[in-house]
Amino acid sequence: xxxxxxxxxxxxxxxxxxxxxxxxxxxxxxxxxxxxxxxxxxxxxxxxxxxxxxxxxxxxxxxxxxxxxxxxxxxxxxxxxxxxxxxxxxxxxxxxxxxxxxxxxxxxxxxxxxxxxxxxxxxxxxxxxxxxxxxxxxxxxxxxxxxxxxxxxxxxxxxxxxxxxxxxxxxxxxxxxxxxxxxxxxxxxxxxxxxxxxxxxxxxxxxxxxxxxxxxxxxxxxxxxxxxxxxxxxxxxxxxxxxxxxxxxxxxxxxxxxxxxxxxxxxxxxxxxxxxxxxxxxxxxxxxxxxxxxxxxxxxxxxxxxxxxxxxxxxxxxxxxxxxxxxxxxxxxxxxxxxxxxxxxxxxxxxx
Amino acid sequence: xxxxxxxxxxxxxxxxxxxxxxxxxxxxxxxxxxxxxxxxxxxxxxxxxxxxxxxxxxxxxxxxxxxxxxxxxxxxxxxxxxxxxxxxxxxxxxxxxxxxxxxxxxxxxxxxxxxxxxxxxxxxxxxxxxxxxxxxxxxxxxxxxxxxxxxxxxxxxxxxxxxxxxxxxxxxxxxxxxxxxxxxxxxxxxxxxxxxxxxxxxxxxxxxxxxxxxxxxxxxxxxxxxxxxxxxxxxxxxxxxxxxxxxxxxxxxxxxxxxxxxxxxxxxxxxxxxxxxxxxxxxxxxxxxxxxxxxxxxxxxxxxxxxxxxxxxxxxxxxxxxxxxxxxxxxxxxxxxxxxxxxxxxxxxxxxxxxxxxxxxxxxxx
Lengths: 352, 366
Fold this sequence. Notes:
The complex is a heterodimer. Chain A is mostly helical. Chain A is 59% helix and 2% strand. A two-stranded antiparallel ribbon of chain B has the order 1-2. Chain B: One of its GO terms (biological process) is visual perception. Chain B: Keywords: Membrane, Transmembrane, Transmembrane helix.
């Protein structure tokens, strides 16, 4: 019960080999595309590494890069096989390698599917990582004199300006953190002393935000301080004002950005999977058709190509038996020893 | 006395034709590169057209685009000609076109050179244009309710953030204009009305700058208001503070940016010009050597190739005479008493055939 049998004339075999050679080179290009995609994603994630707490999300670009490189090598081997397939003297040397090739190619397809699944599944972990990273960034914003944290201010300012966002969830996160360093606070001033005394931890909190939260699209010059105080500014209503600062939080902005990036690569990766699958199937047909032709008396005659020699279930049983046999190769079989002993005991008797 | 006479065997001619065919195709690619560089420059200039006053800087990208397209066409034709030149019979098709083609290409290379020089020379125009454009943009910064100018605030803010600059020459330009719209000023407040009354034109001027001037590298939260007042901020000295705001003026920042682009493009165009010139020289050698082969009659023989048949002075004189006589084609030649019907016997040493006898002159009617 052969799976998906097809008849191949010599002409069809030649056409299949040529078409497969072209498709394998296309698959090599796709492999480089996947590799470049992985590199691009990785550089984008490394650029914002300062606001991410862990690097779990890096598994997506890492897998993409590995699969890209492996796919280039695998499909290059497929092109060599195609070139040799119509030459009866050169084809047999690929026989053993082809089984390994099919396993590797199937593994690559599975990994690519895993990447697509992971890029959706890891969204929650990315969100967690960004939440903690941004919280730390905002907390250490004022520590421009502490080694190791002196660039946090610049990082957060650039991030807020580039992604048009403010704070972690929204701009009110800045109200809960002291983002003005003590060395720029005049402790002799009454206002400063009042504010510090009114806070439990002795922090200088104010209802103001850094300049990087300002929205350039606002028709009005930016209001940064006394945001909750309607009387501090002319014609200003804190509840109704939407254009003054960036409205969304940086965590949401970054997640949207990375999800857009990974979603836009989704169709590309899916088409690469399809191309790789068609290369695998075509190569299997070519292999069986050419082997069938070589076994005939007339090598130019018609042969059959198929996917599996027996049905799916039988092939599976065969493979299982083979694997078990290999695993049991080192073990001694007690039944075989007994029968060997009885045979040895039985054989000398006719001689005597 | 020919200029740069070189002997060409048949194989050398064929090789020259093949090499020139490839070089012509490379020139088509460089023509396409010129076209795309012109397009890139045009897009870059149009992106910031709100900040540039009306000036003639669009000539440069337009010239580059035109030169790129014409270069593609000319080199495509040149490629076809060189491809056919390997075969002497096919060369006859192109024989009459080749000399005009070479002359046209020679004048075209002048256009390429002019394009390259324009890239380097528009700096002054660009600076003027940017100066006026930025002054206007800053003046209309507050007019976010006036149609036609409502996006200038956003443009100027994004410019100052992206190019890390402030004002036209420096941040003090903002002290001289009113950049806060009157609809956000509380006229009932004493401070506001004092400021407006102290100014001759009734403008609300202050020593403050918009938020987009703030320097992200500053270790201190940005000081935007009361910049010249040292006592308004703790531990602040206006004269020595350098990291608070961007120090560079936007005119200089934009000028540097565009000059850098145009210098790189100019260098590429110069290299293209040299390449075109060398391809043209090769085509000229090919043309003269093939014409000499045809004159000698044997397509497999050696022939000479040159740039000019006579020396420069001779060629210039001959061409000037041709141009002069072109102008005289309708005039009567007064050398023979004005009668064009008189047959003046020639003094040339022409070959009249195997017996070298001049053709019989018909006896004059008595």
